[in-house]
Amino acid sequence: MIALEYGDRHGADPFSTPRAARDNARRAADSHFLHPIVRMYVGRDQTAEHHVIEDLAAEWKELEHSVPLREFLTEHLQLTTLGRVAVATNL
What we know:
By secondary structure, the chain is of the alpha+beta class. Helices cover 15% and strands 27% of the residues.
């Protein structure tokens, strides 16, 4: 599932809130502004979650957005021989 969500802003002024640095994708979950969140499920159980670092232009097309997402998907998905995406069995 992919969702666009705002981070927890604690009612703060969005213009004076410290932002997660674009070059620190490991802190993407700390993003206060609108950003994609990819959640993986097996049945009804959430097994993994990835936050894409915020982008004020809301485009998410630079390497700091795509490389961590690709690494997450590579780790949590496997391609079957038929080319379909399947949930990895080692979650």
